[in-house]
Amino acid sequence: WSSDVCSSDLTAQDINRLLGVPRDRIVVTPLGVDERFFATYERRRTVTEEDSLALRIRLGIPVGRPIILYVGGHDERKNIRGLVEISSEVVREVERSGGDSPVLVLAGRISSAKEEERLNVALWDFSMASDTVNVGYVPDEDLHALYAESSVFLFPSLYEGFGLPVLEAMAAGVPVACSNVSSMPEVLGDTGLTFGPQDVRSGAKAVLRLLKDKDAARSLAESAHARSREFTWARTGRLTREAYRAAAEVLGLETK
Q: What span, in angstroms and rounded, lies between the C-alpha atoms of 118 and 135?
């Protein structure tokens, strides 16, 4: 007898389908979110113009432009090309309507020359070099400040075992537009906007709605923040402990 512990129903289904582990022997223990992201939610409400200006100058982000934020890696499943193309559609549409043109901000380490080339090609193909700021890896303080400063969190990933960046954005109070595939809908529920990760037009429409409809964006962000409080590391630990305790009892091992 054996059991597997995983972070989402999607991963449980994959373990069952690919490895043949019976579904009733797979325990789902969703991940939690760091408490500091809840503090970021409050920070969004109190950030000063001086703090905002200092952050933008330090990270090279144009002043006065709404931020479309992406946080994460650059491996192929992250759909960086799709991220850039969606953002390009958004920027061009806002420019046509005469609004404040947004800027795409990428936060996360690029791990290889191939990943860097993939990003650069996308920026060239979709004329987004002047509308994108790649800040790379940033320390926690700047990361939380970025969440507090951003208007939309965009995450068009092709596959996630859980989707922790989505949960962190929810906790921080940033309206979320993300993929409707793999585990991300499990995390987001109905508290954000989802789209097919390869459907550029739908992705752009989702981002545009969050940028233009402030009331809808605020309502979704508040609902997402409330939902994020269900995802605690204490619950993750409790469910994991219960899973191992159940396995030990089946095996006749003593537990404390």
A: 16
pLDDT in tens, 42-77: 988 888 899 999 999 999 999 999 999 999 999 999
How many other CB atoms sit within 10 Å of the CB of residue 167?
A: 25
The region, left, alpha or beta by phi > 0 then psi within -120 to 50, assigned to residue 157 is beta
Dump pLDDT digits (tens) for 104-116: 999 999 999 999 9
Instruction: Please provide the size of the chain in residues.
Output: 256
C-alpha triplet 94, 100, 106: angle, nearest 5°: 85
Inter-residue contact 31 to 231 (CB < 8 Å): yes
Q: How is residue 17 written in tokens?
A: 């389908």
Distance (Å) of CA 246 to CA 23, 86, 232, 241: 15, 46, 21, 9
Distance of CA 220 to the CA centre of its chain: 15
